[in-house]
């Protein structure tokens, strides 16, 4: 696995690199970058790594500014001392959010989460995690979901959705405001149709 570290504190970057190599000795740390500008330059001129470890508050701004300039198509593990950026991290390819100081077990769990996501998409979609992120980053696909709520159909824009989960074969969406909306109710009402009607846009 090829990774890069975006962290403005040299000691913290070195400590993270040592921990990565301890847990995943075959990992190649391609670069350690300290600023938004350096990260943009590197990502614009190199092949995308398999994973990015990214602090949020960098020497010249917030790391979210990177995503405004570069299309990042790999998963990101955010490592920060601040808890208030979690929702922004989800929107920016974040697959985990480690609060400093984090432990070896926290980092191990982050690696396992990335690997589980990657294995899931390879097994169930015929593609991989990077392909999915690339499609999302390129703004491809559906713009909204049509759901049945409070006895009427309503549209939920995809940029309002934090995640989608399935429990006991019943899919639901969860918005960034914390609202859970079942998708199964719409499908149950419309399952006699000749074509799926769960999505719009």
Q: What integer is the average pLDDT?
A: 80
User: How many helix segments?
Assistant: 7
Q: Say how many strands there are.
A: 13
CATH architecture of the largest domain: 3-Layer(aba) Sandwich
Structural class: alpha/beta
In total, the number of domains comes to 2
Tell me roughly what share of residues is in helical segments. 25-40%
Distance between the termini: 36 Å
Using only C-alpha atoms, the radius of gyration works out to 19 Å
Q: CATH H level of the largest domain: which superfamily?
A: Response regulator
| Uncertain runs | 185-201
* Strand percentage: 25-35%
Work out the oligomeric state of the chains in this entry.
single chain
CATH class of the largest domain: Alpha Beta
Quote the CATH topology of the largest domain.
Rossmann fold
Q: Numbering strands along the chain, what is their spatial order in the largest sheet?
A: 2-1-3-6-7
Task: Give the CA-based shape.
Answer: globular
Largest sheet: 5 strands, parallel
Helix and strand string, N-terminal first? EHEHEEEHEHEHHEEEEEHE
What does this structure look like?
The chain has 201 residues and is α/β, with parallel strands linked by helices. The chain folds into two domains: 135 residues, 3-Layer(aba) Sandwich (Rossmann fold); 57 residues, no CATH class. The protein is 36% helix and 30% strand. It has seven helices and 13 strands. It has a five-stranded parallel β-sheet with strand order 2-1-3-6-7, with helices on both faces. It has a three-stranded antiparallel β-sheet with strand order 9-8-13, with no helix packed on it. Strands 10-11-12 form a three-stranded antiparallel β-sheet. The longest helix is centred in the middle third of the chain and has 21 residues. It is globular and about 55 Å long. The two termini are 36 Å apart.
